[in-house]
Amino acid sequence: MSETGTGTGAGALPQTEALPQAGALPQAEALPQAEEALPPSEALAHTEPAPPLLPAPGQPPGSGSGPGGRGTTAVGPAPDPADGGEAPGLGSFLARAAAATAVLTVLGAALGLVRDQAIAQYFGASDASDAFLIAWTVPEMAATLLIEDGMALLLVPAFSLALTRRAADQAPAEPGTRSAGATGEPDDGKAEATGEPGPDPVRELVAVTLPRLCLLLTAGAALLMVGAPWVVGLLAPGLADPGLAVDCTRLTAVTVLTFGITGYFSAALRAHRSFLPPAGVYVAYNIGIIGMTLALHSVWGVRAAAAGVAVGSLLMILTQLPTFLRLLPLTRPRLRRPVRLGRRAVRTAPLLGVTVLAPIVLFVVSRQSQVLVERFLASTLPAGAISHLNYAQKVAQMPMVLSLMICTVTFPVVARAMADGQREKARRRVERDLALAGMVVLLGTAVVLGYAPQIIEVLFQRGAFDVSDTEATAQVMRVYAAGLLGHCLVGALSRPFFSSTRPTWFPAFAMGTGLLVTMGAGYALTYRFGVDGIATANALGISTTALLLLMGLGTRVVPIRARAVAVSLGRLTGAALVAGAAGWAAAPVLPDAALSLAAGCVLVPAVFFLTGLALRSPEVVSLLALIRRRFTDGR
Question: Cα separation of 53 and 13, whole Å?
């Protein structure tokens, strides 16, 4: 499932990885260490231990943040060693980037809840809200394909490779060595040298891809507007009056273009290590929807929310445009190495070929098709079923969004490590990300299991959204929670698969298999169990995909220890089940929903971490040790 109200980002960082992690897998270090940036030829032979990220007792703050004891002070673009500056303490930089991304992600998610609250208050769970949600399938699909997954998986490695080639061209050649082309290949001696500055790979990549992308997406948006009646008929054949859904679909069709440009800008900025503008796009998006809904709901009805989707998508572009124009190399840099005419024909974007694009598109479309299957089945149920599914999904997936934040920020680190042939470095990064993401999502799952009715009552029960809607939505949300770990793992595991320059079809195969499970289980369970059956089918399908990706990653791309990862996640799952059961039993003690939920936010984490300690979960042990050290050292 996809959440168009929240978003996360990724950045590209040069040959370094060090994100302060709460946990580590068995046989891995408990506290992360920063690795010094070394050329690939020296990294294999250099085994000197790197300084720790955290300062030792008695040292001044910042002494352990990186080489020289100095960390970054901003989340914007970090200095590149190729540009003449020293490599910053990238462990500290990644931590700051993750923290800033987290703040904007939470803010965007909070505004997403305000958006859903406004729609629930004015339209409840009715034919009007169902029509809007059918139309919202378009931006949901577009966001997954063009912002969150597809465009990032395709363009972040492409921009990272272009930046690597630029750095190689700008680096001075060593005496006595032959010059190399942008790809690092030795010159064959047949090309003629020229004194002119060579084409900048990043600028060339933008010139080749952005105009074509805009033309293609414009045509797609126009076709969608014309074919809106057919699209609505295909998505929800059970709607009694599809006219309202058709109008809303035509209004939201513009997101095919605007989300594409937004995703392109986001990938380029993250590759340049600029995290704040991409992380803030969903804040602007939700502000546009909320503003239009509040201003025009009495005149346009639910069409005002659809118009807000279009306005919000334009604000997403404007949020990133100034930074994109600043970082875009408008003039060609003077290269230090001699440029060879024979190397000018080398493509700057080999990752954008059809053989790489096709498996990514198929994977993303298959993943988002789970939502299409849900709404297709729910359209045959009584009015309001689609709305109950939507509200339950949006709230239940909040822990997943937060858990994937780390994986998204560190995705370019994995891509850069794979491009440099540093498979062991990529393995450590992926295992740490899976451990931390699993702990965050399972803690959130425990809260959802224990306090689903209280959460829905506090967030939505007002106006047209009554008690019966709260009960139905809470029940569906608890069923959805069973698949949250699967959704998190699919998002985290798919990134390493696409970090390589070689095309891979395995994620698409795994996602297609999960989609078949969702469809089969949905048809089998919907007639008897209604919306609960649809949510159960979703959990079964996505968990199947996650299991296949976990088993296949180690043998195909990154040699992770799948068994160690599974054991670690199994312990965390046990802690989540115990904490969720404790919350479920304690929730009715306090009749006031807000007070009960506040108490649960203390009770469930306490039980989760105590149970994790009892089960000897290394992630929980490492996190508590890190917290204790922070308090005892006073920093």
Answer: 17
